[in-house]
Amino acid sequence: MPSPEPLRYLAVGRILRPWGLSGWVKTEVLTDFPERFDPPGTLLVGEERRPVRLEASRKMGRMILLKFAGYETPEACAGLREQTLYIPIEDAKPLPEGELYVYQLIGLEVWTDEGERLGRVTDLWETGSNDVYVVDREGQVILLPAIKEVVRAIDIERGRMTVHLMEGLLP
User: Would 77 be classed as within a structural domain?
Assistant: First the structure.
């Protein structure tokens, strides 16, 4: 299986719709670092990653209102509707020791502590108690709780996660 292309951008928000009459957009925050939206700054919009300059922001509950340079009316903002906002991966905030971004976990090969390959991490589910790694084992889904009793080691450099299979984890 060929290696996936390295990730170059991180999604930090999703523009929902124009807001008000002076060029603001209501945006869903997709980052744990909402200060990312403190102006001034530049974000990349849409799949073409077009740069937009952030002029102002206002928190609105769990959403945020954003104002970009050159977007002065709701009509000018209409093309931004449902667009994702990105940052270059090199602009990601450094995490504390031992913490990882989700993008670093997706694609890791999962091995048991007994040397059996289980598959690849394809997703991470955030639940109320602990996160759950979704592992694809040749079309079969394995759900592994992200707890220290199960996840023994994560080696980003080697692209590998080592797990201990507690009774009942395999289907």
Answer: yes
* pLDDT tens profile 36-83: 999 999 999 999 999 999 999 999 988 999 999 999 999 999 999 999
**pTM as predicted:** 0.76
* Residue range of the domain that includes 128: 102-163
How far apart CA 149 and CA 147 sit, in angstroms, is 5
pLDDT tens profile 119-147: 999 999 988 889 999 999 998 999 999 99
Torsion of CA 45, 37, 13, 53, to 10 degrees: -10
> Following CA atoms 6, 3, 133, 33 in sequence, which dihedral angle do they give, to the nearest 10 degrees?
0
